[in-house]
Amino acid sequence: MDPDAVARAFVEHYYRTFDTNRAGLAGLYQDSSMLSFEGEKIQGAAAIIAKLTGLQFQQCQHNISTIDCQTSGPAGGVIVFVSGSLQLAGEPHALKFSQMFHLIPTPQGNFYVLNDIFRLNYA
Amino acid sequence: MDPDAVARAFVEHYYRTFDTNRAGLAGLYQDSSMLSFEGEKIQGAAAIIAKLTGLQFQQCQHNISTIDCQTSGPAGGVIVFVSGSLQLAGEPHALKFSQMFHLIPTPQGNFYVLNDIFRLNYA
């Protein structure tokens, strides 16, 4: 496994899906998954997708600035750390954000998101 | 274990030590530890401390804005996600940063840093 390739492919897939079909992110989370979104903790795939699809903005575009990744422990996990900006439809300025994901391999050879922490970087 | 209490205590200890006695961070890392510092990957406690103590600035002050934490997996790990600003001595403006740590429990009942990713948030 090349963790950098995993991280790049995940980031590309995650934000493209977020920006075009947010409900399609459901397959990336499991019942044990946890999202911290601007300080609010949400557990489980169903609640996470309800949160993400219920955000006030309907159209957005993520632009990625940096991707860092590291393997995490002997179980094949990958930690992905992203910085970028989020452009909301109709807003004049993009919002800077940072986000991290802890990806865990599945028996089927894919990865799911165990930990997801998102924060806007206020200037 | 209360992960929020672990995260708060770790963050307080980590940045106080960084700002007053950077070499004192050595006890928080092990040979398996990995630091990504502005995209540069450094493995192992000795190399990580050499990197941190060799940074060009000698005096700095971290101010923390947000702390998020989540448990990570059955092994008692804690993920800590920090945002804040870094004031360097003699510089007019503080630098915004984001940093994440994956803390792993030790047999002695403490935690060490397995993963550490640091990024400045350029405006």
TrEMBL record, chains A, B:
Residues 6-120 form the NTF2 domain. GO terms for cellular component: cytoplasm; nuclear envelope. It comes from the Eukaryota. It is found in: Cytoplasm; Nucleus. GO terms for biological process: mRNA transport; protein import into nucleus. Keywords: Cytoplasm, Nucleus, Protein transport, Transport. PROSITE patterns: NTF2_DOMAIN. InterPro entries: NTF2, NTF2-like_dom_sf, NTF2_dom, Nuclear_transport_factor_2_euk. Has a role in nuclear-cytoplasmic transport of proteins and mRNAs. This is NTF2 domain-containing protein. It comes from Dendrobium nobile. The lineage of its organism: Eukaryota, Viridiplantae, Streptophyta, Embryophyta, Tracheophyta.
